[in-house]
Amino acid sequence: MKFFIDTANLEQIKEAQALGVLDGVTTNPSLMAKEGITGKENILHHYKAICNIVDGDVSAEVIATDFDTMVKEGEELAALHSQIVVKLPMIKEGVKACKYFSDKGIKTNMTLVFSAGQALLAAKAGATYVSPFLGRLDDVATDGLHLISEIRQIYDNYAFETEILSASIRHTMHVINCAKLGSDVMTGPLSAIMGLLKHPLTDIGLAKFLEDYQKGN
Length: 217
Ligand code: E4P
Fold this sequence. Notes:
The protein is of the alpha/beta class. The chain has 11 helices and 8 strands.
């Protein structure tokens, strides 16, 4: 299972990278705005900075909603760095653009996916990644994990190569449950990754080991 971090915060990306378990980064316009990164040139510069920190794929989202401008923006993003994955919204024009980019061998991430039907279309269009938004479904009292299992089943039935990138992860149990369901990738905040570390018995056990070592020295 690949671990992506879902942020545009360079310090958090560096911290996850330093742990040695990071496979990539996802961003979106809201995450960029949260870091105060605004304006096209600053945003493009920030994508490059992220690519220079991590080794893996970095999703960069188009803003356009029509095919021609999506293609123009996506090509510009893809030309920035070899690690860039063009992130496209799950709308009709986005599906067309996904097919365009996959035919050209440019990696894509279909975002804002909330149904199995949308995920099936993304795979048919040759998406590299499909991003079902688990947490946002949970937010509206719908079982986000059920969607992950439906997509897994559909993709396995037909050996689709599109990777399931479970997105909108909010906490460590989302990560664990996605792993149990066979999600290829998860993207979440640093807290969800670091939360996997924690267990009070580990801390108690380590304190006892160190205490006993000190007694004999
Ligand atoms: C996915 O790529 C999105 O950036 C993200 O996971 C959305 O998460 P949120 O629902 O916590 O905003």
